[in-house]
Design brief:
Blueprint: E1 4-8, E2 11-15, E3 24-27, E4 30-31, E5 38-41, E6 49-54, E7 60-65, H1 78-107
């Protein structure tokens, strides 16, 4: 037999598997003043606890309670979570398809801007001929530039 645990906000309700009356509840070796089949813990602080319910005749059931509770929690079932994920995926794929179709039409158009020119087959051009007025400085040949002086602006 198993305990039945119900959690609502910060209230935890535990139902003992024993069906008789006069049940003795103990929480972490301390006797609790509840003698009914259900034990209600108000303002539970999520701290683990050992609970036991027993009869005076000796039958005893024990459980370890480690539940997380919060004041403003909402429980979602598996169907709601599945629906949220499916809707998110459908919206994402819809936006993806819209972007694809709108960008597909613009890909093939030739632009008619002023700076565009018809592109023909690319031909290789030789590098430009260096200007003889600007000769590179070589080590040991500084006398060519020795007569040049800087101008003051």
């Amino acid at each position: 037999k198993e305990f039945l645990v119900e959690i609502s906000g910060t209230t935890v309700t535990i139902t003992c598997p024993l069906t008789e009356d006069q049940i003795v509840w103990k929480r972490s070796s301390t006797k609790v003043d509840s003698n009914t089949r259900k034990y209600v813990i108000e303002n539970y602080d999520s701290s683990p606890a050992n609970l036991s319910c027993s009869l005076e005749s000796g039958r005893n059931y024990e459980m370890y309670l480690n539940a997380r509770v919060c004041k403003n929690c909402e429980e979602l079932d598996a169907l709601a979570v599945t629906g949220i994920i499916a809707a998110d995926l459908l919206i994402t794929f819809g936006v993806l398809i819209l972007v694809y179709y709108f960008s597909k039409d613009r890909k093939g158009r030739a632009s008619t801007s002023a700076g565009s020119r018809p592109r023909g087959q690319k031909t290789q051009r030789p590098p430009p001929v260096p200007n003889p007025d600007y000769e590179p400085i070589r080590k040991g040949q500084r006398e060519v530039y020795a007569g040049l002086e800087s101008r003051g602006f």
